[in-house]
């Protein structure tokens, strides 16, 4: 009697739990459940985002920031810029913005994401949330493709 903690029981119901979790995250953030990717933590989510969305050779990640936000793109061979000044561009690359910022806890300035999108002519990719219960979102912005790269 009591709670069944066997691995067999967990393995048999794992897909159902993941589906329910993805549906709840999608409901909270107004997304489709099929667009929710469940990861084992922030570093895994960051690696996946840069690997999939960062098809260019550049990443813009303002400092201070959570270390994997700038170390992962470097490890993937990307050139990393740590400023959002008008001269900073990720043409054919990716922008990694964390809101609220880790480690400062400050939120992005109102309109910053829209101004970066407008300035670069890029598009906002679906947000990745590494801690949905704490309302922390990593924003992934892909700049326009370079002349040699398809969008």
Notable features of this structure?
six-stranded mixed sheet; Aspartate Aminotransferase, domain 2; 2 domains; elongated; alpha/beta
Describe the structure.
The longest helix has 23 residues. Strands 1, 2, 3, 4, 5 and 6 form a 6-stranded mixed beta sheet that branches. The protein has 2 domains: 38 residues, no CATH class; 103 residues, Type I PLP-dependent aspartate aminotransferase-like (Major domain) (Aspartate Aminotransferase, domain 2, 3-Layer(aba) Sandwich). Helix 2 crosses helix 3. It starts with 6 loop residues before the first helix and ends in a 9-residue tail after the last strand. Strand 1, helix 3 and strand 2 form a beta-alpha-beta unit. The C terminus is likely disordered. It contains 4 helices and 6 strands. It has 151 residues and is an alpha/beta fold.
How many domain units?
2
Alpha carbon gap, first and last residue: 57 Å
State the name of the first-level CATH class of the largest domain: Alpha Beta
Q: What's the architecture of the largest domain in CATH terms?
A: 3-Layer(aba) Sandwich
User: What's the count of strands?
Assistant: 6
SS-based class: alpha/beta
Radius of gyration: 18 Å
Q: What summary fits the major beta sheet?
A: 6 strands, mixed
The total count of helices amounts to 4
Mean pLDDT: 75
Query: Which overall shape is indicated by the principal axes computed on the Cα atoms?
Result: elongated
H/E element string? HHEHEEHEEE
Oligomer: single chain
């Amino acid at each position: 009697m009591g709670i069944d903690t066997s691995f067999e029981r967990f393995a048999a119901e794992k897909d159902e739990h993941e589906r329910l979790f993805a549906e709840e995250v999608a409901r909270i953030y107004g997304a489709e459940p099929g667009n929710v990717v469940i990861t084992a933590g922030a570093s895994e989510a960051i690696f996946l985002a840069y690997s999939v969305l960062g098809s260019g050779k550049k990443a813009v990640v303002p400092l201070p920031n959570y270390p994997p936000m700038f170390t992962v793109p470097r490890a993937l061979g990307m050139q990393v810029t740590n400023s959002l000044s008008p001269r900073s561009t990720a043409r054919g690359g990716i922008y990694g913005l964390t809101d609220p910022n880790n480690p400062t806890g400050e939120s992005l300035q109102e309109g910053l994401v829209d101004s970066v999108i407008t300035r670069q002519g890029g598009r906002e990719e679906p947000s990745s949330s590494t801690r949905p219960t704490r309302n922390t979102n990593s924003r992934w912005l892909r700049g326009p493709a370079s002349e040699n790269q398809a969008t």
